[in-house]
């Protein structure tokens, strides 16, 4: 497979990253994951916009235009002949003598690679288990930072409990998942945490808000508590790789009927239809 390294397409064996790359030492960088369906990058522009926004928030200047960047990602997918999969791309502040403050001058380092990934159809159909885990991350969760230790620790704890995803909460308030956004449905209304500094505003989340509007489903971007979560009629999560995934049980408590809810299934169908339109599947 080909790898994108700055402006060059190289082979993996040729990739050479400094021991003092700030991404490696400090997690000083940001990333994106873009889904590929039938060889097409799904919601590429939204992901690219967020990539540039995250970079700007930590004062990394991406050394090419969005159009050039888009084309490079597209070329990578084509060169690697990816049909269904994803592109992972990150940019770090680059190499410098180890010191905490930003160096006077660095060249940011971009690396992108692809992989084939199947859609998690069975979990999407049957639903997944969630576990409440305290959200101990920092206060800039709006940045898609390479610093994922808080997310990794939470996911591991959920995993050890036999759950698919960690449902993070700050005190009593549910924020998001360790790598997803969270939604509850009560009396036909969808509730989800507002897009503040406490969550990552997911691209899939944005698609869901748009689809809900098209379907005439009311959405309240309003935080809810753990106790309220357990009282929801339906619960689901979203991400680029999990798409819209029902959560049928939290910490062993069934949500609603303990099976994927009707509104969740309607949204999944709308997502599927939207996908077919977007990528002409
Ligand atoms: N929140 C967090 C913390 C995430 O890591 C992700 C996945 N990148 C999401 C939400 C979902 O975002 P998206 O729909 O853009 O994949």
UniProtKB/TrEMBL annotation:
List the catalysed reactions: D-alanine + 2-oxoglutarate = D-glutamate + pyruvate
- Which domain of life does this protein belong to? Bacteria
GO cellular component entries: cytosol
Question: Where do the coiled-coil regions begin and end?
Answer: none
> What Gene Ontology molecular-function terms does this entry list?
D-alanine-2-oxoglutarate aminotransferase activity; pyridoxal phosphate binding
User: Record's Gene3D superfamilies?
Assistant: 3.30.470.10, D-amino Acid Aminotransferase, subunit A, domain 2 (3.20.10.10)
EC numbers listed for it are 2.6.1.21
| Pfam families (UniProt xref) | Aminotran_4
- List the keywords (alphabetical): Aminotransferase, Pyridoxal phosphate, Transferase
Q: Name the coenzymes or cofactors required.
A: pyridoxal 5'-phosphate
- Output the InterPro entries linked to this UniProt entry: Aminotrans_IV, Aminotrans_IV_CS, Aminotransferase-like, BCAT-like_C, BCAT-like_N, Class-IV_PLP-Dep_Aminotrnsfr, D_amino_transT
Top-level enzyme category: transferase
Q: Name one GO biological process term.
A: amino acid biosynthetic process
Query: Carries keyword Transferase?
Result: yes
Q: Which PANTHER family match?
A: AMINO-ACID AMINOTRANSFERASE, D-ALANINE AMINOTRANSFERASE
Q: Which family does it belong to?
A: Belongs to the class-IV pyridoxal-phosphate-dependent aminotransferase family.
List the NCBIfam families.
D_amino_aminoT (TIGR01121)
Q: How does it assemble?
A: Homodimer.
Please give the function described in this protein's UniProt entry. Answer: Acts on the D-isomers of alanine, leucine, aspartate, glutamate, aminobutyrate, norvaline and asparagine. The enzyme transfers an amino group from a substrate D-amino acid to the pyridoxal phosphate cofactor to form pyridoxamine and an alpha-keto acid in the first half-reaction.
Protein name, entry field: D-alanine aminotransferase
Which organism does this record belong to? Planococcus koreensis
Origin organism lineage: Bacteria, Bacillati, Bacillota, Bacilli, Bacillales
């Amino acid at each position: 497979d080909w790898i994108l390294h700055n402006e060059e397409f190289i082979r993996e064996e040729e990739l050479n990253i400094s021991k003092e790359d700030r991404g490696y030492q400090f997690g000083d960088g940001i990333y994106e994951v873009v889904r590929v369906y039938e060889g097409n990058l799904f919601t590429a522009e939204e992901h690219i916009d967020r990539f540039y926004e995250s970079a700007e928030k930590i004062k990394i200047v991406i050394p090419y235009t969005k159009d050039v960047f888009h084309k490079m990602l597209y070329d990578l997918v084509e060169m690697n002949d990816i049909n269904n999969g994803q592109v992972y791309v990150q940019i770090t502040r680059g190499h410098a003598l180890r010191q905490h403050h930003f160096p006077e001058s660095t060249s940011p380092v971009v690396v992108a690679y692809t992989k084939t990934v199947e859609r998690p159809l069975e979990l999407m159909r049957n639903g997944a288990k969630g576990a409440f885990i305290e959200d101990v991350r920092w206060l800039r969760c709006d940045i898609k930072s390479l610093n994922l230790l808080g997310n990794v620790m939470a996911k591991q704890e959920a995993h050890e409990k036999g759950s698919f995803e960690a449902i993070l909460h700050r005190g009593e308030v549910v924020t998001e998942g360790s790598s997803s956004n969270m939604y509850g449905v009560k009396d036909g209304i969808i509730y989800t945490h507002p897009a503040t500094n406490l969550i990552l505003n997911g691209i899939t989340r944005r698609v869901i808000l748009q689809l809900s509007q098209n379907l005439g489903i009311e959405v309240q971007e309003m935080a809810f508590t753990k106790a309220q979560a357990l009282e929801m009629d339906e619960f689901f999560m979203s991400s680029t790789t999990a798409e819209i995934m029902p959560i049928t049980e939290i910490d062993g408590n069934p949500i609603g009927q303990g099976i994927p809810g009707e509104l969740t299934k309607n949204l999944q169908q709308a997502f599927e239809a939207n996908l077919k339109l977007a990528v002409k599947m």
